[in-house]
Design brief:
Chain B: It comes from Fodinicola feengrottensis. Chain B: This is Fe-S cluster assembly protein SufD. The complex is a heterodimer of chains A (254) and B (390). Chain A has one domain: P-loop containing nucleotide triphosphate hydrolases (Rossmann fold), CATH 3.40.50.300. The termini of chain A are far apart. Chain A is α/β, with parallel strands linked by helices and 254 residues long. Helix content of chain B is 15%, strand content 41%. The chains are: A alpha/beta (254), B mainly beta (390).
Chain lengths: 254, 390
């Protein structure tokens, strides 16, 4: 059973001219275990995405102190690809286009990297085909270039397709629900639930809205404001946020 | 820094109209041309100080001439070294710039590769061009003459050291079909300035694939002429400039005959400090060339800081009755966000770069009908990526 532990995280982000801005100031302690689903909720600009990207190792973010470990191993000393091979996955809010690289080539290269060996071709093709059918994506999708000309919904389905195929230990989903229509939201949520129901993946769902929580039931809800967790609870906390919004916290934070 | 000139017309002075260039002086006499300067439109991107004096007559004349050899000669294909008086010389090409004229007046023997009429040559004819040196300039002349109705693949494989200026005349007979692959992979320190002129007969088809990898300065000018209806030219290019290399490709597709087609697709990757590529694509559709169908596109992939890609398409249309005419140019960076995305899926930085570059070139490399050559190009590209990543 895998465990992600985040302790006392301080993160700054590079802004123009070599200057840095402190985003996370140490108020983040979080433990995510395989089989659990955690929702991190907060208003825009609260540092939710900073948390996601700094754990994944984006070069723009610098961790000034604190620790992040996966099963006791120090993630922060690893390169971005090493973190992924250790079992981390980040579904991005804005997946980037990679011209010239087809989805099928990309998926196979990623699966080979994460699994440590190339998947056997016959079972792999079947695996991809089934995953694509579950996410209701057209088979022609595989021959398109990664994220190039994808609609918002297609990009997110593609992220969840990777999640299903790469089978990480811990999956961080950054605003996966944003920009989705109701049908795509259902399809994407079903994908997250399938992964989570295996009991082998810990899910950290970062969201601004409570909408996705109608489909994906979190075990824990953490309210994130001003770069720190200000309240924690069960799924009932999400219901309360739905009716009250973040005003209560943002006022207190100021 | 990266620069893209997407459309010459949006940049004053960025390109002389193709009509002007096609009407420019042609002469066999070097003295008829003034010495190129950076102020000349055709030379403003070229590092004249690195041309070993090939452009202004100051070259050292003691270079070892390159040798042309063919390991395996299929039946129906002949190779000859002929004197300057051979009547096939000058049938397609008259020099239109000083370096081309210098090469024309300075070569001693021309290499002629000819293919009989109405035959299908299954085996690619690979011409090894090499054996030169860096001690002085050398000049050469090549004629490729494909008989009417024949089909053949020819490879001009330029390797080794050389300081070379040369002209290549290519005659594709009526109904003939030629795939011509020209590989510029000279050793570092080499300078290669070449003019290739392709002359197509009625319903003749050519797929011209230019691959530039090695050499300090490579400047290749490819001209396409049509002499009868139904001519079809696919002009494809692959180039990869490493730090300090200057790779320049210019084309002039001169549609002077009705109902012909052209399709120009050049793709280049750049990495390292002062890697510089230039692509100038001129297409002229003359008033009489009704029914022309043409498209040209150049794409560049800048892999690191410090490399520069210049790209200028010029399309001049002098008749309203065309089937299609378009151009495009795009220069993109392989950036930190793409790298992060791929690495966040477990892919190493080196493999990420390889994946992107391989994908970028795959379609064009796939058009080369010689497996060993495809493998060699892929291996060269990947070795360079590995070096840069190390």
């Amino acid at each position: 059973m895998s465990t992600l532990e985040i302790r006392d995280l301080h993160v700054s982000v590079a802004i123009a001219d070599g200057e840095e801005k402190q985003i996370l100031r140490g108020g983040v302690d979080l433990t995510v275990k395989a089989g659990e689903t955690h929702a991190i909720m907060g208003p825009n600009g609260s540092g939710k995405s900073t948390l996601a990207y700094s754990i994944a190792g984006h070069p723009k973010y610098r961790i000034t102190s604190g620790s992040v470990t996966l099963d006791g191993e120090d993630l922060l000393s690893m390169t971005v690809d090493e973190r992924a091979r250790a079992g981390m996955f980040l579904a991005m809010q804005y997946p980037v286009e990679v011209p010239g690289v087809s989805v099928s080539n990309f998926l196979r290269t990623a699966a080979t990297a994460v699994r440590g060996e190339a998947p056997k071709l016959r079972t792999w093709i079947k695996e991809v085909k089934e995953a694509m059918e579950r996410l209701e994506v057209d088979s022609a999708f595989a021959e398109r270039n990664v994220n190039e000309g994808f609609s918002g919904g297609e990009k997110k389905r593609h992220e969840i397709l990777q999640l299903e195929l790469l089978k990480p230990k811990i999956a961080i989903l950054d605003e996966t629900d944003s920009g989705l229509d109701i049908d795509a939201l259902r399809v994407v949520s079903d994908g997250v639930n399938r992964v989570s129901e295996t009991g082998e993946v810990g899910v950290l769902l970062i969201t601004h809205y409570t909408r996705i929580l109608r489909y994906v039931k979190p075990d824990f809800v953490h309210v994130f404001v001003g770069g720190k967790i200000v309240e924690e609870g069960g799924s009932e906390l999400a219901d309360r946020l739905e009716s009250e919004g973040y005003v209560r916290y943002t006022k207190a934070a100021v | 820094m990266t620069t893209t000139t997407a459309d010459a017309r949006s940049q004053p002075g960025a390109g002389a109209p193709p009509a002007t260039r096609s009407a420019a002086l042609t002469s066999y006499d070097v003295a008829d041309f003034s010495v190129p300067t950076m102020r000349d439109e055709d030379w403003r991107f070229t590092p004249l100080s690195r041309l070993a004096g090939l452009h202004d007559g100051s070259f050292v004349a003691s270079g070892t001439p390159v040798k042309r050899s063919v390991a395996e000669l299929p039946s129906g294909v002949r190779i000859e070294n002929v004197g300057r008086d051979d009547k096939r010389i000058g049938t397609a090409l008259v020099p239109f710039d000083r370096i081309s004229a210098q090469a024309y007046t300075s070569f001693t023997e021309a290499f002629v590769l000819s293919v009989d009429k109405d035959i299908q040559v299954e085996t690619p004819v690979v011409v090894d061009v090499g054996g030169g040196d860096l001690d002085g300039a050398s000049f050469a002349h090549t004629v490729v003459d494909i008989g009417a109705g024949s089909e053949v693949t020819v490879v001009l494989d330029h390797t080794g050291p050389a300081v070379l200026a040369d002209n290549v005349e290519v005659l594709v007979g009526d109904n003939a079909k030629l795939i011509l692959v020209s590989v510029q992979d000279f050793d570092s320190g080499s300078v290669h300035l070449q003019h290739q002129r392709l002359k197509l007969g009625r319903d003749a088809r050519i797929t011209h694939i230019s691959v530039s990898l090695g050499g300090d300065v490579v400047r290749q000018f490819t001209t396409v002429d049509y002499t009868g209806r139904g001519g079809d030219a696919q002009a494809l290019g692959i180039y990869f400039a490493d730090g300090g290399q200057h790779l320049e490709h210019r084309q002039l597709v001169d549609h002077s005959v009705p109902d012909c087609r052209s399709n120009v697709v050049y793709r280049g990757a750049l990495q390292g400090k002062d890697a510089h590529t230039v692509w100038i694509g001129d297409v002229l559709i003359r008033p009489e060339a009704t029914g022309t169908d043409t498209y040209e596109i150049n794409r560049n992939l800048v892999l690191t800081e410090g490399a520069r890609a210049d790209s200028v398409p010029n399309l001049e249309i002098q008749t309203g009755e065309v089937v299609g005419a378009g151009h495009a140019s795009a220069t993109g960076r392989f950036d930190d966000e793409q790298l992060f995305y791929l690495m966040s899926r477990g892919i190493t930085a080196e493999n990420a770069r390889r994946l992107v570059v391989r994908g970028f070139f795959a379609e064009l490399i796939g058009r080369i009908p010689v497996e060993e050559l495809r493998d060699r190009i892929t291996a060269t590209v990947e070795a360079r990526l590995a070096e840069a990543g190390a």
